[in-house]
TrEMBL record:
One of its GO terms (biological process) is polyamine biosynthetic process. It comes from the Bacteria. It comes from Stieleria maiorica. The chain crosses the membrane at residues 36-55, 62-82, 102-128, 140-159, 171-191, 225-245, 251-270, 282-299, 305-328, 340-363, 369-390, 402-421. SUPFAM superfamilies: S-adenosyl-L-methionine-dependent methyltransferases. This is Spermidine synthase. Keywords: Membrane, Polyamine biosynthesis, Transmembrane, Transmembrane helix.
Length: 687
């Protein structure tokens, strides 16, 4: 049993370690957007289904000797594809489809090793059933999810802060080789199983034995449909709740770890032992959380966001427990173990396809959230009244049938409520790989919003040409532009992060702008609903793609002012704040050029990091805090101003209150590189 358990535990650990490692390798090439994680999750869910299906086919159609031979060949082939880190040749140009390019790159570099790892759980459990075909085999599935949970929680706090990306990739590759040896040893043991002993392990008890009946009885189509539908619903809820909590409630780094941890924990609880699953109290708590979500506006404003996030987590955990508890209750005998797991993984993959592919194609907003929340509400409502006792999973489905109209009412209510909330004063909405962008109307004007992050506002006439939000005349970048315009008759200005184009309101006929934006929907919305760029007399050149990759290709560009405005969200592109990127910015500045970095952020303290990067690049830096004025649409902002030592910009009277870094700040500040950076080092837990 030790070798079987070790194989499953190590395989599960590697499955969930490779996901953040490979995602972090490619995250910089796609602007650091959260959609990279969603696409990677879709890829891994699809490959997980492929691995489970492979295990089912191998177990069904091959004898133990053939199973071992085939899998040993596959293990060897997977080991030959290492290491997994992609080369620079895979960097996107900006013209390709991000989703397809990312999926093809993942398939090329990690596809075969992950495919082998994903088949480990059901395949090893099937091999163990040759020796022990009792239900005890299913407990290894709980062990598998425990290994996955440890990998998930340990990465951001144990491995990422200590090891560089390349070291992480190399370490994972070495551990995979160790895994191949351990599983290879288990596979070789199958060679000792003779045809006679193999026949003896098949469930062939006497016909009158209940064990024989349970093992060989046909599984109904409804049960098989539940094996797919229930995991699909849990997978959908995981993804939609993660998207909502991370983008619309509180954009806190690593908040995506908590929902996924709860999702995995539900597997551990439900598959470890049937006694842990008690649907009636679970349904009661889930319904209470759903009710609090709908009534969050009755709570004090200071705790609304925290309460809503907590309620969503409780609701998600309850929904996953109910889905996985029911599917565990419906598990077949070990003879159908691999078919069962293949259908479970098909459901998980189906959920990923729905959220990552179908919803972005069919919807221009996050309408899937209210729909699936309502569906979970109705199903939980029915399950609560159908369950007859508080301690066991015994049902009276006739009672549930009598309450079907009540369940329908419960389902409709949250859809109507959330529809009104989401559509209030929304002028337009667009959705693509990078998320949902909304144009909303406010009393002063219209604004561009991505999740909970404001990307600029334009006031109504006659003030439509005045800079607003973080870019007002009294902001750090506003003072820098005015000072440089007084010193130079013309300026070449580069801007990474277009927003709705507010900064172009500073343009003069003699100035020129290079506008770099990774999201094509941002450019479309800025043209269609805002007039900053239309009204600007300066010449403009637009560049579509990741800011750093575009700047790398602009080898002849020299900017008098380079503005980085990509960090107001907490899903920040960390690759834009590394030692290597700072060296690139320094190369792209003209003689006497200035670099301005917008570091306003609710949950990340980026200013010390930028101070340290500037010192490392032998440049001076100042932090300027701008005070907002709601009456003219400006907001509080933090701008970092960076230039060569002794630059005249630092003597400007308008920037007199800009501050330098203290010795203590520089001692404690991180210094990110392309190989070594993590958001924990700049995470601000208390505001």
């Amino acid at each position: 049993m030790i070798w079987f358990a070790a194989t499953i535990l190590l395989g599960a650990f590697l499955v969930f370690q490779v996901q953040p490692i490979i995602s972090k390798c490619v995250l910089p090439w796609f602007g650091g957007t959260p959609a990279v994680w969603t696409t990677c999750m879709l890829f891994f869910q699809l490959l997980l289904f492929g691995g489970y299906l492979y295990a089912h086919v191998l177990r069904t159609y091959c004898n133990p000797f053939a199973q071992a031979a085939v899998h040993l060949l596959l293990l060897s082939a997977a080991a030959m594809t290492l290491p997994i880190e992609p080369s620079d040749a895979w960097k996107p140009t900006g013209s390709e489809s991000p989703t397809l390019h990312l999926l093809w790159m993942l398939a090329s570099h990690v596809g075969l090793p992950y495919f082998v790892l994903s088949s480990t759980g059901p395949l090893v459990q099937a091999w163990l059933s040759f020796h022990d075909n009792s239900e005890r085999v299913y407990r290894l599935y709980a062990l598998s999810n425990a290994g996955s949970l440890f990998a998930l929680l340990s990465y951001p706090f144990l491995f990422e802060p200590v090891l560089s990306v390349s070291t992480q990739s190399s370490m994972w590759s070495l551990l995979f080789c160790l895994f191949a040896l351990v599983q290879g040893y288990v596979a070789v043991s199958l060679f000792r199983i003779t045809p006679d002993s193999f026949e003896a392990t098949e469930p062939k008890a006497p016909e009158t034995s209940p064990a024989s009946t349970a093992a060989t009885a046909p599984v109904s189509a409804a049960t098989q449909a539940a094996w797919i539908a229930l995991p699909a619903l849990a997978s959908v809820m995981l993804l939609v709740v993660t998207n909502h909590v991370c983008q619309d409630i509180a954009v806190v780094p690593f908040l995506w770890v908590l929902p996924l941890s709860l999702y995995l924990a539900s597997f551990i609880v439900c598959f470890d032992s049937p006694q842990w699953y008690r649907p009636k109290p679970i349904a009661a708590v889930t319904l209470a959380a759903l009710a609090l979500i709908q009534g969050k506006t009755l709570l004090p404003g200071s705790i609304q966001l925290i309460a809503e996030a907590c309620c969503y987590m409780v609701m998600l955990f309850g929904a996953c427990l109910l889905c996985h508890g029911e599917v565990a209750r419906l598990k077949p005998g070990t003879a159908r173990l691999t078919q069962y797991y293949a259908m479970l993984s098909a459901g998980g993959a189906l959920g990923g396809v729905i959220v990552a592919i179908l919803c972005p194609l069919l919807l221009n907003n996050h309408a899937e959230l209210p729909f699936f929340v309502a569906l979970v509400t109705a199903l939980t409502f029915l399950l609560f009244f159908a369950c007859k006792t508080w301690r066991q999973a015994e049902y009276d489905w006739a009672a549930a049938a009598r309450l079907k109209y009540g369940a329908l009412l419960v389902m409709i209510s949250p859809i109507i409520t959330m529809a009104f909330v989401s559509n209030n004063r929304t002028i337009a909405s667009q959705r693509n790989f990078f998320g949902v962008l909304k144009v909303r109307e406010k009393p002063l004007g219209i604004c561009l919003v991505h999740g909970s992050t404001l990307h600029g506002m334009q006031r109504h006439a006659p003030h439509q040409s005045q800079p607003t939000t973080y870019y007002g005349y009294e902001s750090g970048v506003g003072h820098v532009i005015k000072e440089l315009q007084q010193q130079h008759p013309s300026l070449r200005i580069g801007i990474v992060g277009l927003g709705c184009g507010v900064l172009t309101s500073y343009g003069r006929p003699t100035d020129s702008f290079d506008l770099i934006e990774i999201n094509p929907a941002v450019i479309d919305i800025a043209d269609r609903y805002f007039t900053f760029m239309k009204d600007c007399p300066s010449s403009m050149t637009r560049h579509l793609g990741d800011g750093r990759l575009v700047l790398e290709r602009m080898t002849d560009a020299k900017f008098d002012l380079l503005v980085l405005d990509a960090f107001s969200s907490d899903a920040i592109p960390a690759h834009l704040l590394t030692r290597e990127s700072m060296s690139l910015y320094k190369e792209r500045l003209a003689e006497g050029g200035v670099l301005a970095i917008h570091t306003s952020n609710n949950h990340l303290e980026l200013s010390p990091l930028v101070h340290n990067l500037s010192r490392d690049a032998q440049m001076d830096s100042r932090m300027f805090e701008g005070i907002g004025d709601n009456s003219i649409g400006t907001t509080h902002s933090t701008w970092m101003i960076i230039a060569q030592p002794g630059h005249t910009i630092f003597q400007a009277a308008s920037l007199a209150k800009a501050t330098t870094a203290t010795d203590e700040e520089l001692r404690e500040a991180p210094l990110w590189t392309d190989q070594h950076h993590n958001l924990v080092s700049v995470l601000r837990l208390w505001q």
